[in-house]
Amino acid sequence: MDYFQLLLLAHIIGDFPLQTDAIYRLKQKTYWGVVLHVIVCTIINIIILFQFLNSVAIWGVIGFLAIFHFTLDRTKILLAVFKAKDGLRYFFIDQLFHLISLYISAVWLTLMYKTPVPQIHVKMEFIIALNALLMAAFVVPAILYYTHKKIKIWYHLQEPFAFPTAKERLPGSLARLLATGGLILGRWYALLLLLAAIIPFLAPQNRSRASIFRTSEAIINIIACIVSALYYHLF
């Protein structure tokens, strides 16, 4: 479904690389942070869908996604504050609701137009590849954070723990990007997957951490790259 791939691309860009650490902290303090985040996501939707903006249906979808995103993010933050509901399960539930909203929007647009995306300037194969690469590069840090948070509790580890900064996330993101690209290209390029397994043991911020963190990060990196590449090959 072409519209879904475009909406997914906008969601990944807006919800992950463009949700900076500053915006994330502001979201936790005030609902204006959520407003700013939703504005950024809406702008990305407008940019991605720019050649269809003469359609009322497209603007309806953009508006629906903005309202839905604001409501979902505020609900998630309130649950985290008042119910202490924050973790890997709730991250996946949050993203699942986002995907459902994207799918509903894409189905509605398809029914409205009765045709695939008209005359798009780039091949849909490129959009799908871009989605796969960005998922591996930018979605995984949140999964790693929540997983390591659980590991710290399970193993009663005392070392300080915080969400990694953008600079700390960069080596892993680049490694997963290259590894997923290698799996998409196939042949000898698939050996780039080794980068995703090695980088947790080489990254400066990981050298003083318990080995269980580095090992789990390597495993999650490999799984994420394979799943992202499969997404490309299946769609």
Model description:
- With 235 residues, this protein is mostly helical.
- The chain folds into two domains: 2-114, no CATH class; 126-234, no CATH class.
- The protein is 76% helix and 0% strand.
- It has nine helices and no strands.
- Helix 1 crosses helix 6.
Keywords:
9 helices; single chain; 2 domains; 235 residues; mainly alpha; 76% helix
Structural class: mainly alpha
Relative strand content: under 5%
Tell me, rounded to a whole number, the average pLDDT.
89
Number of strands: 0
Determine the fraction of residues in helical runs and give it as a percent range: over 70%
Can you summarize the main beta sheet? none
Number of helices: 9
| Shape estimate | globular
The run of helices and strands is HHHHHHHHH
Radius of gyration: 19 Å
What is the domain tally? 2
Q: What is the CA-CA span between the terminal residues?
A: 9 Å
Pick out the low-confidence regions. Answer: none
State the gist of this model:
This protein has nine helices and no strands. It has 235 residues and is mainly alpha-helical.
Strand and helix map with partners:
Layout: H1 2-15, H2 21-29, H3 31-48, H4 56-82, H5 88-113, H6 124-154, H7 166-185, H8 193-202, H9 211-234
Helix pairs in contact: 1-3, 1-5, 1-6, 2-3, 3-4, 4-5, 6-7, 6-9, 7-8, 7-9, 8-9
